[in-house]
Design brief:
Layout (H helix, E strand, L loop, with lengths): L1 H23 L1 H6 L32 E3 L2 E3 L19 E4 L2 E4 L20 E2 L2 E2 L3
Antiparallel strand pairs: 1-2, 3-4, 5-6
Family: Belongs to the STIG1 family.
Organism: Musa troglodytarum (fe'i banana)
Keywords: Signal
């Protein structure tokens, strides 16, 4: 009988300690851990329109920001030379310019793919047919 009484006393004292600790810091727990870090940005809020330096990171697709996405306007077919300037079918973005890669002998089939002197570019191939 003495053993059960001593166990009951120790459990009740632990429960009262937990209640007093929780009552002492309800404001910290209700605000969350990130209330301690006022400059914390959630990953969803780190878009290039809010934080432009995101696009200059080494693993970024490009250094420019277009519609909340990092792009390279020198090579991106959806933003060629500037945001929203799209390349049409048969065109590619070469150095920020829209180029017809189907018939341009300087960019035949892709950027900077030159045909040999005297040959022509047709359907993206040099001297086709």
């Amino acid at each position: 009988m003495a053993l059960t009484t001593s166990l009951a006393l120790s459990v009740s004292s632990v429960e009262s300690d937990e209640r007093s600790t929780a009552a002492a810091a309800p404001s910290l727990l209700s605000r969350g851990i990130y209330s301690l870090f006022p400059r914390y940005h959630a990953r969803g809020l780190m878009t290039c329109d809010n934080v432009p330096r995101v696009c200059r990171a080494s693993d970024s697709p490009g250094p420019d920001c277009c519609r909340k996405q990092c792009v390279n306007v020198m090579t991106d077919n959806q933003n060629c030379g500037q945001c929203g300037k799209k390349c049409r079918f048969g065109q590619a973005c070469c150095g920020g310019n829209r180029v017809n890669v189907m018939y341009d002998p300087k960019n035949c089939g892709g950027c900077n793919k030159r045909c040999k002197k005297g040959s022509f570019c047709q359907y993206g191939m040099c001297s086709y047919a």
